[in-house]
Amino acid sequence: MKKQILTNPNKKPKWHKLGVGGYIALIITTLLSIFPFYWMFIVASNGTEEISKVPPTLLPGPRFFTVISHVYEALPQFNQALLNSFYVGTAIALAQVFFSAIAGFAFAKLNFRGQRFMVLFVVLTMMLPSQLGIIPLFMLMGWAGLLNTLGALIVPALVTAFGVFWMRQVIDAQVPNELLEAASIDGAGVFRVYWNIVLPIIAQSSFVLGLFSFLASWNDFLWPLLVLNSPENFTAQVAVNQLKSSYAIDYALNMGGAFLSTVPLLILFIFVGRRLVRGVMDGAVKG
Amino acid sequence: MSQTAVAKRKPPSPWKPVKQDRKQSNPNAVLSLNGRWGYLFTAPFFVMFLIFGLAPIIYSVYIAFFNWDALGTQDFIGLDNFTELMKDDRFWNALVNTVDIWLLSTIPMLVLSISLAAVLHSPYLRGSTFFRTILLVPNITSVLAIAIVFGQLFGRDFGIVNDIIGAMGLPHVDFVQGTQSSHIAIASMIVWRWTGYNALIFLAAMLAIPGELYESASLDGASKWQQFRFVTLPGLRNTITFVLIVGTIGGLQVFAEPLILGGSYNGGDSGQFSTLTLFLFDQAFVAYKWGYAAAIGIMITFIVAAVSIVNFFITRRLTGEKK
Q: Measured between alpha carbons, how far is B99 from A281 in angstroms, rounded to an integer?
């Protein structure tokens, strides 16, 4: 569409003229999207009493570091929890990219019997409610001796049907068959074709899948809450939840914790946000 | 090694009859690559999935026929869990709440995200990269952090929402205590989280609609609304179906928002915002009735499947023209 505008500068297409209303809608959306984060900081920096006034203050206050120190008093392991979340998320992201990319490659480019059925199987499993197997999974973790370890978070999340299906779509769309044919006729084995040709092409998309896996793991809340019970093993989410239950509602404390657990994501987002947007849009069902 | 492998393997012959292709399991495959590697490459996924995905689900179906608790009771009781569930008011209450929250979140989310996508679709928009990126911000944050913020915003005495309601001269609403009002608070968290993400999905689909369709429509004198109705909307058919089905699967399993809002698995003092999945967790990890909880899980699966199928046909209808 941009091309169209460039080639006929005098004959702009009439459709999609954008009025002021469009910009107003987008600006309101922007403000609403950011407000909860801003509010976290406002409450955490003012203290609970300040925001209980009517009308409440909408500006940052001076008590931020006091509130944060209260968070660390209430849960000295908070930094450990952030680190745990980071380790778990990284391990899951690496594993998912590795297993999904290689399985996705097989499903997209290799011809083997039962292939079609297997893909259907993967798609169907994506439809199953994830909570359905949670009790046996909990029992399984108990038998495996993984309860109250970070392993209980990592092991069940090493692969997902979603990741495999997503990589299959990506490889199907991005890797031309001719390239693989040429390489294999030149004598490269299947694994070398995968490693030397497919992987470099899908590096960007793999990175996006890894990011989404990392985010999902960082934000996962219920499963860590069920399987972890000693503070040194907490993830960031469990730690924040702990602040919630260890006191009567102390909004400043809660939001201080929520703020600490969210800031790493926002910093990450500044660097990778645009790639994530592209990933979401590339993966969209069109039509 | 690969040299000999290639020499041994029959090269794909271009003079083979086309019919042979039908036997191909994967029509887009690269035939010069040895397909048997596919088993090895997909094996890690299948092994892990069987152990941690499928086996627990099958086992869950098994224990649904037992009076099975965390302490060791394991009595086979046939369909008793299911008949008891049908008579359990908490189940029906949770079902009604879940559907209500799902409707309250899905409909505004769809309307808002398609509208936002339509604005972003304009080739005249400045700063589109910025706006697209901002739209994704709500989606990357944890439900927990956001539920804490929304819980405060919707607070009875000092929440901003009630400040605004009060400023309009209306009495304060106790969002958490009311049934419909707590559903609205929960739905607003879901809408906040998913509108931007889905707007990006719809935008991607709109960008895939050929521009000529719009041009010829406007040459035929179609108004902006008519273009939207007869060009854009039919072009989004599959995307709307997809978003709805994914939203249904997620929406009918909603639990994190009500769990954090109420601070317990009850879903409020009188269960006013208890949902199906929350009820499952309450039975599994508070009451420790694992057999009963497994039965709830199976019912959720059937409900999700049924609603998804209904959705599929309704969206086909609503989005118009047959292919």
A: 29
The residues in B 266-305 lying below 8 A from A, measured between CB atoms, are: 277, 280-281, 284-285, 290, 293-294, 297-298, 300-301, 304-305
pLDDT tens column, A119-164? 888 888 877 777 888 999 999 999 999 999 999 999 999 999 989 9
Q: Per DSSP, what are the bridge partners of residue B67?
A: B75
* CA–CA dist B309, B311 (Å, integer): 5
With a CB cutoff of 8 Å and minimum separation 6, the contacts of A208 are A275, A276, A278, A279
Asked whether residue A6 is domain-assigned, the answer is no
Domain ranges, residue A45: 12-67
Are B32 and A33 inside 8 Å of each other by CB? no
Does A43 touch chain B if contact means CB atoms closer than 8 Å? yes
In angstroms, the separation between the Cα of residue A216 and the nearest Cα of chain B is 8
> Which residue in the block uniquely carries the two structure tokens 């919707």?
B154
Nearest to A140 among B38, B56, B215 (CB): B56
Question: What gap in Å lies between CA B259 and CA B245, rounded to an integer?
Answer: 23
Q: Which amino acid is at A117?
A: F
Per-residue pLDDT band at A207 (split at 50, 70, 90): very high
Answer yes or no: do A280 and B136 touch at CB < 8 A.
Answer: yes
pLDDT band at B23 (very low <50, low <70, confident <90, very high): low
Q: Identify whether the C-beta of residue A164 lies closer than 8 Å to the C-beta of residue A181.
A: no
CATH for B90-318 (3.30.450.40, 1.10.3720.10, 3.40.47.10, 3.90.1010.20) = 1.10.3720.10
Does the pLDDT at position B18 exceed 80? no
Q: Considering only CB atoms, which chain B residues are within 8 Å of A284?
A: 200-202, 204-205, 239
For residues B190 and B109, the answer to whether their CB atoms sit within 8 Å is: yes
Query: Looking at residue B319, what is its pLDDT?
Result: 64
